[in-house]
Design brief:
mainly alpha, two-stranded antiparallel ribbon, 53% helix, 18 helices
């Protein structure tokens, strides 16, 4: 009897079968797929696990926190009138090149909202609500004519003093105040310019419009090639730039800037893939056509095979920008709790304020917030990086005026302003001073506090964070579809 036959007689059949399976699995590296094939077939989500680089938390932690706690709350909050109407100027000409690529497709157009649909509080006051006067107000001529009943008594004691200030001086003071206020801004705010108008965001959802080609590529080329830190040699396209970039050779500030831009780009692409025009067929149930997930488009934009292996890293950067904006909300929470979120509709304003307080409490409970103090040390180099950050983001906000699709321009400007507002919050010396002095805990705050946000900045901040939250939520849907 041979040795093999002897062993077969002594070992139960199921053990032999188990050994055969394990041996086959070892050869095929699991699930009967070769190891080489596994490496070559990494999916879009292969980088979405473990620690998020430059942050102190895990991808799974963010997924659970966002999808269970943040996303549902934002969905109910952002339909409120305060966040639904965004004032913006879509009529600016492109300051960098001739605007010769206007999108003519009907899905590129922004639907105008009827004046009667805008809440009365916004139409009456806008950003000039009594509780929202800008810093420059104290230097305006109107502020100098406050009633002072004891003026005559002071004059009799001190003698007559000429307290008049020329109109020219008033204007100069206002310009100084506006300049000082704008020093902390990371983007250009145009809501009070001539040509600005309210847009109903619910009537104009962010989705695929068909805007693509040279015009769209020129915008992203300009954003990456002229504003990102990184390789010294000039590239022709941002895809060439991304192929040359080496994050390991960048300092933290340079790497953070790139990851923020990349994360925003990824988020926008996810929105386009999740609300893709699947059919223009119109009927009673779908008068605007049929919109939904386009799996193939998602794979084209993010799979390793079509992105030179970079797509999964771009998705990972989405988590980085999400944590940056999440931290901004947490840091601004004491200030935001003092806001009235005024629209003139009393009952809804109260509901909005309650929903905001609930959301901010959840945001503050996140265990591993982004550490903004890791960036921009007080060294000369750190101060220079902070200045460059501001200038680059301001430039990006100008580039958004070059987008040839009005609806894309609308959401590009909103998300850029929201990101700029988040950075303003994280790196505002005035906010730090107000918080450290306990200003937000006082029962009364003067009309002109040390730090303030315009209404459009608050609307952009929450809607931009809502877009990032939606992207992470939609990624889970794509993940399930691709399994």
């Amino acid at each position: 009897m041979s040795l093999s036959r002897s062993i077969a007689n002594r070992v139960p059949l199921f053990v032999v079968l188990l050994l055969v399976c394990l041996y086959g699995t070892h050869l095929s590296c699991g699930y009967f797929t070769s190891y080489v094939a596994q490496e070559n077939n990494k999916n879009c989500f292969c980088e979405l696990e473990g620690s998020i680089n430059d942050c102190g938390c895990e991808v799974d932690t963010v997924d659970h926190f966002n999808n269970i706690k943040i996303y549902p709350r934002l969905q109910s909050l952002l339909v409120k009138n305060y966040f639904r109407f965004y004032k913006v100027n879509l009529n600016h000409d492109c300051p960098f090149w001739p605007d010769d690529s206007k999108c003519a497709m009907r899905f590129c157009q922004v639907e105008n909202c009827e004046e009667q649909t805008i809440p009365p509080g916004l139409m009456e006051h806008g950003d000039n609500h009594p509780f929202m006067k800008p810093t420059a107000y104290k230097y305006s001529e109107a502020a100098q004519h406050a009633d002072c009943s004891d003026a005559d008594d002071f004059s009799s004691i001190l003698g007559i003093i000429d307290t008049s200030i020329s109109d020219q001086a008033h204007k100069e003071f206002e310009l100084w105040a506006k300049h000082d206020q704008a020093e902390e801004d990371f983007c250009i705010v145009d809501e009070n310019e001539e040509g600005s108008q309210y847009v109903d965001l619910l009537l104009n959802p962010e989705r695929y419009t068909g805007y693509k080609g040279e015009s769209a590529h020129r915008v992203w080329n300009s954003i990456y090639l002229e504003n990102c830190f990184g390789v010294q040699n000039r590239s022709n396209t941002f895809s060439d730039y991304l192929a040359q970039i080496d994050l390991h050779k960048m300092c933290l500030e340079q790497r953070a800037f790139y990851r923020i831009i990349s994360g925003l780009h990824s988020s926008i692409n996810i929105h386009l893939c999740s609300k893709y025009l699947l059919s223009e067929t119109k009927d009673f149930l779908a008068p605007q056509g049929i919109w939904g997930h386009n799996i193939q488009e998602f794979k084209r934009r993010f799979s390793p095979e079509t992105t030179n292996g970079e797509g999964p890293h771009w998705l990972r950067n989405l988590y980085f920008i999400y944590l940056v904006e999440l931290r901004a909300l947490a840091k601004a929470a004491p200030y935001l709790r003092r806001e009235n979120f005024y629209t003139g509709i009393v009952e809804e304003d109260q509901e909005t304020k309650m929903a905001i307080n609930d959301l901010l409490s959840v945001v503050e409970s996140f265990p591993n917030h982004f550490d903004e103090n890791a960036l921009f040390s007080h060294s000369p180099q750190g101060i220079r990086f902070k200045y460059e950050f501001k200038e680059k983001f301001r430039n990006i906000s100008r580039i958004m005026d070059c987008v040839g699709c009005d609806k894309c321009k609308l959401w590009g400007k909103l998300q850029t302003q929201g990101l700029g507002t988040a950075l303003k919050i994280l790196y505002s010396e005035k906010l730090n001073m107000a918080t450290e002095s306990g200003l937000w805990e006082k029962p009364h705050i003067e009309i002109d506090p040390i730090f303030r946000l315009k209404r459009s900045e608050i609307v952009a901040l929450f809607n931009a964070f809502g877009r990032l939250s939606n992207s992470i939520y939609e990624m889970e849907n794509f993940r399930k579809s691709l399994r």
